[in-house]
């Protein structure tokens, strides 16, 4: 796995992502939406990928209202997306933008915490499809564009369960562990002197609908909103550090 590192403290310049194209999956809500707003505020043109058009439109409107560059909406349900669907994402980026600087993979499938023996086959397949397979395929297809970028970045949103085996994490935890290993393999195969970076990012607990599924009795107001993690994510993206596993958790 990549070395675990605390998130940098250096704040990005106001135009740190100016003229850059950033593709964000899961951009309709949670960390994906917050990251899109932060990236747009730093000058990026964002491509918002998600399964619910209404949510993507909400992110679109929020970016425009804040004065950011008009983003693009790419509706796609990763649960049923095949290899060709994901290849078309990269082809569309090349056709309409001619570049891709950042691939931020924030989409996640999580149903509930459960024992391994109780995992439903459908949940197993969908968890691996959204959390792992789609992330691999998008990375693979977008690789030529990312390599051509001056400072290409791939960022996989993961979880502490991806580095430390914990009970009841189910298919979600297994997929996050696989993400950590996959990022390390991409980084090791990148070659010396490459400016392309492959990062994993553990945002820590966030006030999101996904967390509510696992902790239904938790008072959400006691948990940080995703905006705080999104700001940390931006500090990772602008860093010149080598490929790393970044954690925004306190302590």
Overview of this structure, please?
This protein is an alpha/beta fold. It has one domain (4-247): NAD(P)-binding Rossmann-like Domain (Rossmann fold), CATH 3.40.50.720. 42% of the residues lie in helices and 14% in strands. It contains 7 helices and 8 strands; from the N terminus they run ββαβαβαβαβαβααβ. An 8-stranded parallel sheet has the order 1-8-7-6-5-2-3-4, with helices on both faces. Strand 5 (102-105), helix 4 (121-148) and strand 6 (153-157) form a beta-alpha-beta unit. Helix 1 (30-41) crosses helix 7. It is globular. The two termini are 21 Å apart.
Going by CATH, the architecture would be 3-Layer(aba) Sandwich
- Give the fraction of residues assigned to helices: 40-55%
Can you tell me the number of structural domains?
1
For CATH, the homologous superfamily is named as: NAD(P)-binding Rossmann-like Domain
Please count the helical segments.
7
Succession of helices and strands: EEHEHEHEHEHEHHE
Mind telling me the C-alpha Rg?
A: 17 Å
CATH class: Alpha Beta
**CATH fold naming:** Rossmann fold
Overall mean confidence score, pLDDT = 94
Sheet of most strands: 8 strands, parallel
From the helix content, strand content and strand pairing, which structural class follows? alpha/beta
Strand order of the largest sheet: 1-8-7-6-5-2-3-4
Entry keywords:
single chain, 251 residues, alpha/beta, Rossmann fold, eight-stranded parallel beta sheet, 8 strands, 42% helix, globular
Secondary-structure blueprint:
Elements: E1 4-6, E2 21-25, H1 30-41, E3 45-50, H2 53-65, E4 72-75, H3 83-96, E5 102-105, H4 121-148, E6 153-157, H5 170-188, E7 197-202, H6 209-214, H7 226-238, E8 245-247
Parallel strand pairs: 1-8, 2-3, 2-5, 3-4, 5-6, 6-7, 7-8
Helix pairs in contact: 1-2, 1-7, 3-4, 4-5
């Amino acid at each position: 796995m990549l070395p675990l590192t605390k998130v940098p403290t250096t704040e990005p310049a106001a135009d740190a992502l100016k003229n850059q194209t950033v593709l964000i999956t899961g951009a309709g809500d949670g960390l994906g939406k917050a990251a899109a707003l932060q990236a747009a505020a730093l000058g990026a043109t964002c491509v918002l990928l998600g399964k619910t058009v209404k949510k993507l439109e909400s992110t679109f409107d929020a970016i425009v209202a804040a004065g950011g560059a008009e983003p693009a909406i790419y509706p796609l349900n990763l649960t049923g997306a095949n290899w060709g669907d994901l290849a078309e994402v990269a082809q569309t980026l090349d056709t309409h933008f001619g570049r891709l600087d950042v691939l931020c993979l924030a989409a996640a499938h999580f149903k509930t915490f459960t024992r391994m023996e109780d995992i439903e086959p459908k949940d197993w397949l969908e968890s691996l499809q959204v959390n792992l397979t789609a992330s691999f395929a998008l990375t693979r297809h977008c690789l030529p564009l990312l390599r051509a970028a001056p400072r290409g970045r791939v960022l996989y949103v993961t979880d502490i369960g991806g580095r430390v085996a914990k009970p009841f994490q189910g298919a979600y935890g297994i997929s996050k562990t696989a993400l950590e290993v996959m990022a390390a393999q991409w980084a090791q195969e990148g070659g010396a002197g490459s400016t392309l970076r492959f990062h994993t990012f553990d945002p820590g607990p966030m006030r999101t609908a996904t967390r509510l599924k696992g902790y239904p009795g938790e008072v959400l107001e006691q948990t940080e909103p995703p905006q705080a993690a999104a700001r940390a994510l931006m500090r990772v993206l602008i860093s010149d550090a080598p490929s790393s596993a970044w954690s925004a958790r306190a302590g």
